[in-house]
Amino acid sequence: MEVGFFYHPQIEKYDFGEGHPFRGKRFEIFLSFFKERFPDFKNYFQHILPSPASDQLLCLVHTQDYIDVVKSASSGIEVPYLFHYLSSDNINPLTGRFPQGIDEAARAIVGSSAEALEMVARGSLKKAIVIGGGLHHAQPDFGEGFCVYNDIAIGVENLKRKYKLERILVLDTDAHAGNGVAQFFYNDPCVLFIDLHQDPTTIYPGTGFIHQIGEGKGKGFTVNLSLSVGASNKSYQYLFEEIIFPLAREFSPQLIIRYGGSDPHYLDNLTNLGLTLDGFKMIGSYTREIAEEVCQARSVDLVTSGYNEELLPFCWTALIAGVLNREVDLDDFKERNLPNPDFKLEETKEMVFSLKKLLKNYWRSMSK
What we know:
Blueprint: E1 3-6, H1 25-37, H2 41-44, E2 46-48, H3 55-58, H4 64-74, H5 102-121, E3 127-131, H6 151-163, E4 168-172, H7 179-184, E5 191-198, E6 222-227, H8 233-251, E7 255-259, H9 277-294, E8 299-303, H10 312-324, H11 345-359
Parallel strand pairs: 1-2, 1-3, 3-8, 4-5, 4-7, 5-6, 7-8
Helix pairs in contact: 1-10, 5-6, 8-9, 8-11, 9-10
């Protein structure tokens, strides 16, 4: 069996509490939904219960001081100057406190992502699905954007050190720019970071502009694909065809990581993009096709985001179905008032034209 499914029950405690848009029940709801849609789940997947991340693993990216603060606050201990380490959106809005138990849940997520990446890197699995992974906003000493520990950065850094990988493609399809991942690898030519997100002038975290392409040896290895509000399926298709496929072929990664959940959907409650369920399956399918073409299908897919609870399991399932090249019936979710798939396509083409001018000195494929 070559497909790993990573799900640790502890992640259900990754919950910022009543009144917050990120609740831990999303994971349990999704798992039940997914098993209904994949009746051969037990035979198709290798269901893996990963080990939670140790301090040593977390310290590949985060400072020990920050880890100690998270651990203390998560256990209910009063921490002076807590907002020096955590943004207000990582605090429960009703209690004003950091949710108890979230350190253990975040460690389970990091452990899941790191173990999945290791197993794919060493050939124990061809590909892996990680539920809960993709906490891309967390900084080395600061938690923000509903993210406590940055499982992507930790997992990639672990691969580089332990398996000496030199070319890793990280594809972020979350509606928000992955500022934590971008910052950590901004000078690193071993990581090609391609980030599709809503125009940063219109949404948190306010970074991810097309001119932000990396620094030093990493210049040209950060690629921000900034999408206008409402951009729909055809814009995503255009970005894959014009930017992502050509760069992936030229970079020739040894492994691909894609992460992001349901928040680019046009019915998400926190964002303003225009993807439909078909668009999510397209993203999964394109990611699979790239991996099959350039790195013998070695890929890890992480899903966690989304802020419409009814919609979320449908989008996550559509993504995974695309990654696995599986047909799945999702017709019971009625997408009303569907956006025009061409909406904002011309603006997307203009953005790509400008971006290619910035990247052509670093990538031959961007000169075409």
